[in-house]
Amino acid sequence: MALPYELSAVVRAYLADRPQASWREFSDDVGIAGLLVPEEHGGAGCGPAEMTAVAEELGRALSPHPFLQSAVMAVEALKADGQGLLPSLADGSLTATVVLPGDGDLRLEGGRLTGVVPYALEGGLALLYVGGLLVTAVPERRRTYRTMDGSRPLQELVFHDTPVRHLGDGGSWARVRDLGIAALAAEQAGGARRCLEMAAGHAKTRRQFGRPIGSFQAVKHKLADVFLLVESARSAAGAAARDEVPSAVAGSYCTEAYLAAAGENIQVHGGIGVTWEHPAHRHLKRAVSDAQLFGPPQAHRTRLAAHVFGPASSR
């Protein structure tokens, strides 16, 4: 098994060399789809450290691949229920998306599902936590949105008296949510780190008044502040993946760190930073969309307050 930093280097090199590779190709070449799948089901059997390393690199590259929803959340859901589907997820021939409780207006009656999931991450297999159960069902209709952040496809899923396949009792949903938040936090940390690299690189080469703009105190302070945010975000994401801190800590901190880093990257670049041709705007769009994926930072802090101080603190 590769060490996390070695895995990180492999993923970064692959994304740089083959940015248009499909999920199946990526999985065949690197094994990314089966990273968290147990070895007895055809996967690599890796853990939180490897997941965090890969997620950071995917966030850094603004990868559109379904690692978060399929290789992390769906795999975690199926470890407890529906293990027969894991080999297909592990080899990349199948992708999946997970619908958590409250993500849609769904009713399960008599083994049939009706309702709408307005926003779901893109995936071939729909895994839904509904009515205290984990089920899978084929949507009657899918509608793919044209989103501000084109690197994170979203779909609407519509069900109407749709038969379901019962996979389990659904007790794993909180762990699936928390692992998803931790993986997203690692992606956000990777994106923030890339923003810092871009800003620092520009500050070294852009000259004003006869010297690099990075020599000016105001720019130095911006970059130093972003560096602290990036390193703290990486620590928070890693700790959340290892269950050392509640995922709400990483969800809140990493979201705001990425938003701040993306904004400061544009500020350091000046006018060119807001042009369509420069990639800085793509990180800002990803940061803004990520901030809504599992709820905004305020929602994470509300959940954290209830965890620390008890339910009365959330009222």
From TrEMBL:
Kinase recorded as keyword: no
Source domain of life: Bacteria
Enzyme Commission no: 1.-.-.-
UniProt entry tagged with the keyword Oxidoreductase: yes
One Pfam family, short name: Acyl-CoA_dh_1
Single GO molecular function: oxidoreductase activity
Domain Acyl-CoA dehydrogenase/oxidase N-terminal: 19-72
Enzyme class label: oxidoreductase
Domain Acyl-CoA dehydrogenase/oxidase C-terminal: from-to ranges: 183-308
InterPro entries tied to this protein: AcylCo_DH-like_C, AcylCo_DH/oxidase_C, AcylCoA_DH/ox_N, AcylCoA_DH/ox_N_sf, AcylCoA_DH/oxidase_NM_dom_sf
Gene3D superfamilies: Acyl-CoA dehydrogenase/oxidase, N-terminal domain, Butyryl-CoA Dehydrogenase, subunit A, domain 3
Segments crossing the lipid bilayer: 116-138
Similarity section: Belongs to the acyl-CoA dehydrogenase family.
Protein name per its UniProtKB record: Acyl-CoA dehydrogenase family protein
Organism listed in the record: Nonomuraea purpurea
